[in-house]
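Recall from the previous lesson that a structure prediction takes nothing but the amino acid sequence as input. Here we apply that procedure to Phosphatidylglycerol--prolipoprotein diacylglyceryl transferase from Candidatus Desulfovibrio trichonymphae. The sequence below is the only information supplied.
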Amino acid sequence: MSFFPVDPVVFSLGGLHVRWYGLMYLFGFAAGWGLGRRRASRSVPAWPPTAVDDLLTCAMLGVIVGGRLGYVLFYDLVAYIREPWEILRLWNGGMSFHGGLLGVLLAFAWFARSRGKAFLAVSDFVAPLVPPGLFFGRIGNFINSELWGKVSDVPWAVVFPGGGPWPRHPSQLYEAFLEGLVLFVLLWAYSSRPRKTGAVSGLFAAGYGLARFCVEFVRVPDTQLGYLAFGWLTMGQILCLPLIGIGLWLLFRADKEM
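The prediction returns the following tokens.
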């Protein structure tokens, strides 16, 4: 299989280039907003629509700022110190989920305090809204021909521009399926019934961490980092370990309270 001929640029207006990578983020935020409005009307107690709008606006800023700074700090600090203006060029890719998560958690903390809500109640509300954004983000990675997998002879292997002449695992699509579709179905179904505070957040953290940890085995590690521990652990896997631990702890804690 060859890389399908999708131009990363959707269209251009003069010097302005509209890219699929950016559009995927917009699609993700739009999906989260629509699902959030639907979820708000079914919550007990119900969330007013304006609260959903404010929360998702804060979360969007947290994702963008945290995701970019997280990538800079966790994955390629030296290169960005050398060329700091590259930090602003989001259209070239380079967003960290774990950095985005930290940014979102800070946004949740501010929102919870300003609205008199519990932090975990806020994160439980938002957790099922996140996987669609992850799905679209990974599709953006695929179109951008970045974060590809290892060389493989599976029938669906893809030859990526810049990845040499060898067919590779489309690891971005694996992540889109597991982190996006599968995790969304699990969270939406699980949260459809009343749960103890923190349980939905715990399922999200553990589910995402396990999915990402597994896919990293067939994904090429970042060139500037390589494998960081035991000759096979990547930065993504190392960052997922505490996430899995926190998720399991929240689920155990909620189970003990039932």
